[in-house]
Amino acid sequence: MNRSKQEASDIRLSTLEENLLALLIGKQFYGLAIIDALQEVIGRSLSVGSLYPALHKMEKKGLIRSWWGEETPEERGHARRRYYTATGLGEQALKAAEGKRRLLAQWQPAWGRA
Amino acid sequence: MTFKFSERWERKRRENRLLWVRKQAEALVLQQKNTLFHQMVELVEAKGRQIIAQKVYEQAQREQQVEQVEQVEQAYAQMKQAAAQAEQIQMQVMQTKQACLQAEQACLQAAQVWRQALVGQSSPVGETTIIPWLSRFLDERARAEWVGDLYEMRMIWREQGLSSWMIHTRTVGVALQLLVAQLRCIAYDRVFTRFWEKS
Questions:
Q1: Cβ separation of A52 and B125 shorter than 8 Å?
Q2: A33, A60, A98, B190: which sits with the fewest CB atoms below 10 Å from its CB?
Q3: Which of A32, A52, A56 lies closest to B152 in CB terms?
Q4: Is A10 on the interface with B (CB under 8 A)?
Q5: Is 50 exceeded by the pLDDT of residue B123?
């Protein structure tokens, strides 16, 4: 457990990766739904050219996992959707990143400390 | 004289005795006849009762048969009525099914017309030359996932009312992004395999 936490705290996350993990913890979305969610919440559109490599990289790191959906809608040319969700490691990595950010917010230079 | 008297008396006594016996016999016969008569009457009555009972039994049996026949006829009539109703319902079900099929066909036709109207041409939903061209450069998973998403994007753009040339331009842009994304993924895989998995 400590090793896993240590491993999670060692993983460096980009802003996009943090956003994706925050979105995918406890939920499952496919590519276009992720783009829509990020655009709606953050207010900035994310291109597919950035999203898919980020998802690919995060999956390789074990932060997220994915699987094929069952539906084959006609509007997708009968292609299946691939759903993504955060793994336990991803959740821990995000918590570690948020912890670091909190520490960073509370940090003071040596000459300013009491 | 004495002899005569005694002989006459004896004869008289014998005659009386015979008369008594005869009367006794006649009384017995009468009694027997009476008994026989009563027995005959009883027999006749019993026979009569038996015949009546038989008649009643036969009558009851006939009535029961008639009743049973009536019940059977009634049940048969009900069965015929039920069969007629079932046939009617079956006809209605067939009519409803036919109406459903017609409605489904109409719905499909309407959906097709709607899609054609959205596309602005008679081609299927995702038909474009860019996507097959793009698919040649993508690996199997990316082809299924990314190209599917691209088809879905085109559908959304159509629903938003974008013109065909705008959709075409955006498709080209996304296709180029996906090509770059594929290159980035390949590069990442090579780096990941060479350096990080070794450590």
A1: no
A2: B190
A3: A32
A4: no
A5: no
Q: B42-54: buried (b, 16+ CB within 10 Å) or exposed (e) per residue?
A: eeeeeeeeeeeee
pLDDT per position as a tens digit, B90-114? 888 888 778 777 777 776 776 666 5
Q: Are A52 and A34 within 8 A, CB to CB?
A: no
B134, A8 in Cβ contact below 8 A? no
User: Structure tokens of A15?
Assistant: 């802003």
At B127, the amino acid letter reads E
Closest alpha carbon to B196 in A46, A1, A61:
A61
Contact B181 A49 (CB under 8 A): yes
How confident is residue B77, by pLDDT bands cut at 50, 70 and 90?
A: confident
pLDDT digit string (tens) for B124-178? Answer: 444 678 888 888 888 888 888 888 888 888 888 888 888 888 998 999 999 999 9
Torsion of CA B48, B50, B56, B59, to 10 degrees: -100
> In this complex, is the C-beta atom of A43 within 8 Å of any C-beta atom belonging to chain B?
no
Which residue is it, tokens 């038989």? B54
Contacts of B142 in chain A (CB under 8 A): 52
| CA–CA gap between residue B140 and residue A80 (Å, rounded) | 12
Q: Which chain A residues have a beta carbon less than 8 Å from that of B147?
A: 77, 79
Q: Percent of chain B scored above 70 by pLDDT?
A: 85
pLDDT at B124: 43
Residue B180 and residue A49: Cβ atoms within 8 Å?
Answer: yes
Chain A residues closer than 8 Å to B191 by CB: none
pLDDT bin (cut points 50, 70, 90) of residue A94 is: very high
Q: How far is CA B98 from the centre of its chain?
A: 23
Which positions in chain B have a beta carbon within 8 angstroms of at least one beta carbon in chain A?
125-126, 131, 141-142, 144-153, 155-156, 174, 176-178, 180-181, 184-185, 188-189, 192
Q: Can you give the pTM of this predicted structure? A: 0.55
